[in-house]
Amino acid sequence: MSADSQTTIDPTLVGTTATGTDRQGSRVPWRFIGGRAVFYLFTLWAAITMNFFLPRLLKGDAVDSFMARSQGQLTPAAEKALRALFGLDKSVPLWEQYLNYWNMLLHGNLGVSISTGLAPVGDAIASALPWTLGLVGVATIISFLIGTGLGAVIGWRRGSRLDAFVPVTTFLGTVPYFWLGLIFIAIFSTALGWFPAGHAYEIGVEPGWNGDFISEVVSHAALPVATIVIVSLGGWVLGMRNMMLTVLDEDYITVAQAKGMPNQRVLWKYAARNAVLPQIQSFALAIGFIVGGTLVMEMVFSYPGIGLLLLNATNAKDYALMQGIFLVLVLAVLVANILADVAYAILDPRTRQTEA
């Protein structure tokens, strides 16, 4: 009898994502990644192309808006210079503008923003992006961890009183961000005075890596973070709970329990490990869309994030800034999708075997 035939396979691992990883280790699926990379490169090209053409289909442009605000104080020569600066020279064919746009992107130049005093687009985005990443990113991670863990426990203990959390969190998930945010401001800021009502920090506070500034940022972010966590918690709880109910009916769960394994081990090592796979892909997408910010939430709390910056750029018809923000958003979503595919393939060998 060969050595392979004498190898004992744990029956509780058959049909689970643990089977391949236990036998082969968590190897990186390069062929799977390569196929995805080609697809995402095409998607990136299509997104950048649409990013160039769509704003130009709108009526008017940034220079027209700027000329209207100047009330005729600029000469035609100044208007021509502005159009050349923003790549909106009507004497240049559209295809040539498109090639110039690609040339600028490849050199890391996103243009200049007319709505921020002719500042480089990269600088305008760099000043707003950390606030969005810090606020929405932390809130998304917190809601994912709490919602996934709570959903796993609720699914494991189905039929218990914990099921009451599902309709409660689902109801809270239907509440609009701005409505819950206004309620929090009215209660915790206006009535109780526990937290500030808006902005990222108080006027006059010098930004820096010091205790005073960090405490200001944390206190100002408390209500927006709580708003995002509460509203988004229901989706994570419901998704994980439903997947747990499906996984608990699998044979390997029955075998694991019949072998007398501790419930905690069966819950987290077998049931939750397989049920969490769809959650990981959803989490990656949520991380990608963090870059876009939560526009309404940022408006309610006057938070200087990327969403508020995009609103101002749209009102000013600031094509360069709009295109820069959309480009960063597209890149974030694509990278998040790639990371989700890689994580999914590593955790579930069946995925990369099918793709291969």
- Assign the CATH architecture of the domain at 122-355: Orthogonal Bundle
- Average pLDDT confidence is 76
What is the strand tally? Answer: 2
Cα separation of the termini: 32 Å
Per CATH, the class of the domain at 122-355 reads Mainly Alpha
Radius of gyration: 26 Å
Low confidence ranges? 1-9, 11-15, 17-26
* Number of DSSP helical runs: 17
Oligomer kind: single chain
Task: Classify the beta-strand content into a percent band.
Answer: under 5%
Helix content: over 70%
Which homologous superfamily in CATH is the superfamily of the domain at 122-355?
Answer: MetI-like
Molecular shape: globular
Largest sheet: 2 strands, antiparallel
Summary keywords:
disordered N terminus; mainly alpha; MetI-like fold; two-stranded antiparallel sheet; 356 residues
